Amino acid sequence: MKKAFLYLAVVFISVSAIAQTQWKVDPHHSSLNFNISHSGISIVNGKFLEYTGNLTTNDKALKDSKFEFTVDVKSIDTNVDARDNHLKSADFFEVEKHPTMTFKSTKMVASKKANHYTLHGDLTIKGITKPVVFEVTYGGIAKGDKGEKLGMKAQTTINRFDYNINYDPTAAGIGKEVTIIVHLQFAKQ
Q: What's the Cα-to-Cα distance from 33 to each of 37, 45, 62, 165, rounded to whole Å?
């Protein structure tokens, strides 16, 4: 009886491991964008150009998948060099001390709406980790000459003050809330 249980446990673990699919973010077909209000009258858009990400799915389903993402903060780009350099300074991201930001999922839950999920996880910026929830729209899987690709869009809004990014001179009127919009394409490994 004990041997039979052990055998079933080994088979179950082996089948579970086989069913998992590994995916790696394709930076040539992905983008990591953000926007924030400025002076209360307009929006400033920006993006990060260098990042890595991995997704582990149970076969090809997103439910219960695991997601990890690392961003090189020095790669920030708002199309204004002076602003980008200021964002890298101690007033904002302090990139010399905190060169990366990370996200690690804690759970992915299917929504009642088809192809929609909530992605829960921990976002770390400037050494401060806070839970966040992304709304995810699953784009599906495409097969091509270079293998399978999986696509999704994820969006959330965070308060930058939660991460000690609290530079806010009265005259500038920089918003506290930052909307993060991520378009991702993953390549099957």
A: 14, 7, 22, 17
**Token duo for residue 118:** 């909530």
Mean pLDDT of 158-169: 92
Contact 148, 142 (CB under 8 A): yes
pLDDT surpassing 70 at residue 14: no
| Rounded Cα distance, 164 and 186, in Å | 31
CA distance 25 to 48: 14
Class of residue 73 by CB neighbours under 10 A (exposed 0-12, middle 13-18, buried 19+): buried
Q: Mind listing the domains of the chain with CATH numbers? A: 20-188 (2.40.128.110)
- Token pair 């806070």 is found at 130
- Distance between CA atoms of residues 164 and 18, nearest Å: 42
Amino acid identity of residue 156, one-letter, is T
- Helices vs strands, H then E, count in the chain: 2, 11
Tokens linked to 98? 């905190």
Query: Distance between CA atoms of 152 and 24, rounded to whole angstroms?
Result: 13
Mean pLDDT of 13-27: 76
Q: Model's pTM, two decimal places? A: 0.86
3-class state of residue 5 by DSSP: helix
d(CA 152, CA 23): 12
